Amino acid sequence: MEEELLSSGNTKSKFSQIWTRLSQMYQSMLDRWTPHSRARWAGTIILLLIFGMRIIINQGWYIVTYALGIYHLNLFIAFLTPKIDPAMDFDAEENGPELPTRANEEFRPFIRRLPEFKFWYSVTKSTVIGVVCTFFDCFNIPVFWPILVMYFITLFCITMKRQIRHMIKYRYIPFTHGKPKYRGHEETTGKVIISPK
Predict the structure, then answer these.
(1) pLDDT under 70 in the chain at which residues?
(2) Cβ contacts of 188-194, under 8 Å, gap ≥ 24
(3) Number of domains in the chain
(4) What's this model's pTM, rounded to 2 decimal places?
(5) What is the domain extent for residue 63?
C-alpha cells in the first residue's frame, strides 16, 4: 500500500517537473519573440488569412468568425485605451485631464490598458483556437451570415465612434513612435565644426 502511494507521488512529481520544464521552454520562446514585433504581427496576419480562407472555402463556421471578430474588437479597444482612464478619475472633472495637453507640460508616455505584446498574444492564441474550431462540425451552426456581418459593422462603428470621442475629449493619441528625439547644436545648424589641432 505504501509503495503504491510512493509510486503515485513519484509519478505526480515527475509530471509536475515535466510540466514546469515545458512551461519554461514555452516562456523562453515567447521572450525571444518579444522584440520582433513586425515578424510577430506578420505571422499573425498570415494566420488570420489562413482562417479567412478556410471560412470562405468551406462556407461555414460563421458563428466562430463572429465570436472571433467580437473578441478581437474588444482587445483592440483595450489596446487603444489608457491604463488609467481619465473618465474614471474624479480629479479629471475638476482639474482637467491627467494626460499632458500642451507642449510645455511634462512628457508622459501613453501607457496602454492592454500592452502590445499581450494584444498580439491574445489575438494569435484566439485565432489558433478559431482555426481549430473549424475542424469540428459541432461549431458549424447554420446562420444567415449577412446579419452577423451587419451586426459586427454596426458594433464596430459605434464602439470606434465612442473611442474616438474619448480620445478627443481627453486629448490623447494612443500611437507613439518611441521617445522624443532632441537634436544637438551641430544638427540644427547643418554645419560641422572641426576643432583645430
Answers:
(1) 1-9, 87-109, 176-197
(2) none
(3) 1
(4) 0.72
(5) 38-174
